[in-house]
């Protein structure tokens, strides 16, 4: 028996984090444009496409040597594309990226993998799985009740205290897997909303590859960190080590952790209201240890997902045989994932082998062919995974979208309904672009050159016209 896809797979799909080795046409750094977009992640690409389609001059300035942000597809490490960051889309009827992906020839389809629960070396029995589902339903209802309260509290405070043997598993799925944060750090409102990401959509070629394709027509300058943003109105633009770009509007798509890190200076300084809002929407921790196997020693099906009945936070979620390949991933998140990531890639790989050996036997280690790990917290231009609100922080999303003169902030953290997702990031970029375009006003039509009024030609002599006064060609 499988656990609910909405409760498990839907929760794990929220990570909003360009093949790893891909080409992108580099744009020369202009001195002046209509709009500068800071960041070539999902929100930045969406914003720039909207600006360009409106006939405005735009440049995307990206600090990293690639586009895609937290959408990053590694096509070199394994036989199958490996999404190091975001791996799923949602809501095919309303998600603009689903339509765009299909128009670009990408294989987009709903995913319907099986899910298993492991108890030690065996799969959970039907009665045990039903018990887990009932426990998660109770927990979800409690979060729903708390999210409608007058005061937002942490998910940990809202959760029932008598969840029994499934306490740690439930806390892991609803907290770290869904949002990258432990329940004590997570708003009950965000914890409840994170469960509503339905209709999981997969992209066989990888979401990073899709974002790279969508960015291809845009003028993008890579490996060019913005060091200062000027938004006083009289002097609007960005400064980089390669020079300054003057602009009439700026769209900033940096992550909330980068925004609060001080990596980008602002003149004048960013208001405390916006900085406080960003700090309440900090990024969680979500990383992935990828392993390829010789054969199928785990005995799992294509795209099958598995969690365990855990007794503490030292646990993970397994995705097996990705797209029918030998690639499997072990995802770690929340406080434990953050601590493990800080220890480095070797420690992460060692945990993955230890965890799989505990569940499937010690022979698993010998069957591993290759393994790599992501470390998003150490990525200097990201500093984490997806955003999630701390208790009381949900209104901060709207604060971040407030225009600051001609400066507009976008990114998945600003989405009030689809935060933490690629769709939320894309739609936020388009919204910011629309606001910037409205601020700039309509594009002025080019002024036509004045044409001299034709001078009348002199009448021919009566001799030349046969004795008449008619103009030539007047017959």
UniProtKB/TrEMBL annotation:
Keyword Transit peptide: no
Reactions the enzyme catalyzes: L-tryptophan + O2 = indole-3-acetamide + CO2 + H2O
Record pathway: Plant hormone metabolism; auxin biosynthesis
EC number annotated for this UniProt entry: 1.13.12.3
Signal found in the keyword field: yes
Signal peptide: 1-27
Entry GO MF terms: tryptophan 2-monooxygenase activity
Keywords: Auxin biosynthesis, Signal
Domain of life, source organism: Bacteria
InterPro entries in UniProt: Amino_oxidase, FAD/NAD-bd_sf, Flavin_monoamine_oxidase, TAT_signal
GO biological process, alphabetically ordered: auxin biosynthetic process
Similarity comment: Belongs to the tryptophan 2-monooxygenase family.
Designated name of the protein: Tryptophan 2-monooxygenase
Origin organism lineage: Bacteria, Pseudomonadati, Pseudomonadota, Alphaproteobacteria, Hyphomicrobiales
């Amino acid at each position: 028996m499988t656990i609910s896809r909405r409760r498990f797979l839907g929760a794990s799909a929220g990570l909003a984090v360009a093949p790893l080795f891909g080409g992108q046409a580099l744009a020369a750094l202009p001195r002046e444009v209509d709009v500068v977009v800071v960041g070539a992640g999902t929100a930045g690409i969406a914003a720039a496409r909207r600006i360009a389609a409106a006939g405005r001059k735009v440049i995307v300035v990206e600090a990293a040597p690639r586009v895609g942000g937290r959408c990053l597809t590694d096509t070199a490490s394994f036989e199958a594309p490996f999404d190091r960051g975001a791996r799923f889309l949602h809501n095919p009827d309303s998600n603009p990226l689903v339509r765009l992906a299909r128009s670009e020839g990408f294989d987009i389809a709903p995913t319907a993998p099986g899910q298993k629960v492991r108890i030690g070396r065996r799969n959970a029995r039907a009665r045990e799985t039903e018990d887990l589902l009932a426990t998660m339903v109770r927990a979800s209802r409690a979060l729903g009740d708390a999210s409608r309260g007058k005061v937002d509290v942490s998910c940990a405070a809202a959760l029932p205290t008598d969840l029994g043997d499934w306490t740690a598993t439930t806390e892991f799925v609803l907290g770290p897997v869904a949002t990258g944060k432990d329940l004590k750090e997570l708003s009950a409102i965000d914890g409840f909303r994170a469960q509503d990401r339905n209709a999981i959509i997969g992209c066989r070629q990888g979401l990073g590859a899709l974002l790279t394709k969508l960015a291809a027509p845009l003028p993008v300058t890579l490996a060019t960190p913005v060091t200062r943003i000027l938004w006083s109105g009289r002097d609007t633009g960005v400064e980089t080590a390669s020079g300054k770009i003057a602009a009439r509007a700026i769209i900033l798509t940096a992550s909330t952790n980068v925004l609060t890190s001080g990596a980008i200076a602002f003149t004048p300084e960013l208001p405390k209201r916006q900085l406080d809002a960003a700090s309440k929407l900090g990024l969680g921790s979500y990383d992935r240890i990828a392993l390829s196997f010789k054969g199928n020693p785990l005995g799992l099906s294509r795209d099958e997902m598995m969690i365990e009945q855990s007794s503490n936070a030292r646990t993970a979620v397994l995705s097996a045989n990705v797209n029918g390949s030998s690639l499997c991933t072990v995802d770690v998140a929340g406080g434990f994932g953050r601590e493990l990531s800080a220890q480095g890639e070797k420690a992460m790989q060692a945990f993955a082998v230890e965890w799989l050996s505990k569940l499937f036997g010690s022979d698993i280690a010998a069957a591993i062919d290759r393994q790599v790990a992501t470390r998003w917290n150490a990525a200097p231009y990201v500093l984490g995974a997806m955003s999630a609100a701390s208790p009381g922080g949900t209104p901060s999303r709207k604060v971040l979208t407030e225009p600051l003169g001609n400066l507009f902030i976008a990114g998945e953290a600003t989405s009030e309904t689809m935060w933490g997702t690629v769709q939320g990031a894309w739609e936020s970029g388009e919204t910011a672009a629309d606001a910037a375009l409205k601020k700039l006003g309509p594009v002025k039509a080019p002024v036509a050159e004045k044409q001299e009024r034709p001078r009348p030609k002199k009448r021919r002599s009566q001799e030349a016209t046969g004795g008449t006064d008619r103009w030539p060609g007047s017959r």
